[in-house]
Design brief:
The chain is α+β, with helices and mostly antiparallel strands. The chain has a domain of 96 residues. Helices cover 51% and strands 10% of the residues. The chain contains 5 helices and 4 strands.
Length: 154
C-alpha cells in the first residue's frame, strides 16, 4: 500500500472524482416532466380551436362539391388533368382528412381547393378554352350560390 494515497473505491474514477449517484437526478426528471406537461398544455391551448362546420356551412361545402362533380370542366392538379368526378373525390378526401379544422365554406376553398398541399402548386380549372385558378372559380360559385339562397321565395 502506498502512503499518501487512499485506496480507490469502486465509485471513484481515475481522476479521483466520485461517481456517487446525483441526488438531483429525481428532481431533474420531475422538472423535465413538468416542463413537458407545460409545453403539451400550452400547445393544446395555443393551437387554433376549430369546430366542425355549422349546418349552414356544411350545406355550402356540399354544394361546392356537387358543383365540382357536375361541372363539364377539366381540373388541373400538379400539371395533370382530371375529370370533374375525380376532382370532387379528391377535394372530399382532403376535407375528410382535415377533420374539424375546416369550419366555413371560405376555409374549404382557401385551404383545400386552392392549391396542392404537397407541391403548393395552384389548382386550375379549364372550362372550354378558359383556364382560371380553382379557388377563384369556387369563390365565384359560392358568391352566386349565396345570392340565390338569399332571394326570397316567390
Amino acid at each position: 500500500m502506498s502512503y499518501g494515497m487512499r485506496p480507490s473505491s469502486p465509485r471513484e474514477t481515475a481522476s479521483g472524482k466520485s461517481q456517487r449517484p446525483s441526488r438531483r437526478t429525481p428532481v431533474l426528471q420531475g422538472w423535465q416532466r413538468g416542463v413537458a406537461l407545460l409545453v403539451a398544455m400550452t400547445a393544446a391551448y395555443a393551437a387554433p380551436l376549430h369546430a366542425d362546420p355549422s349546418p349552414a356551412a356544411q350545406v355550402e361545402i356540399d354544394h361546392l362539391l356537387a358543383f365540382v362533380a357536375a361541372s363539364p370542366c377539366t381540373f388541373i392538379r400538379n400539371g395533370a388533368s382530371y375529370p370533374a368526378t375525380e376532382a370532387r373525390d379528391h377535394l372530399a378526401g382532403k376535407l375528410k382528412f382535415a377533420g374539424g379544422r375546416i369550419s366555413t365554406a371560405e376555409e374549404f376553398v382557401r385551404y383545400l381547393a386552392t392549391e396542392s398541399s404537397m407541391s403548393h402548386e395552384p389548382y386550375k380549372v379549364k372550362c372550354g378554352t378558359k383556364e382560371m385558378p380553382a379557388g377563384v372559380w369556387l369563390s365565384e360559385e359560392l358568391k352566386r350560390y349565396r345570392a340565390v339562397a338569399a332571394r326570397p321565395a316567390s
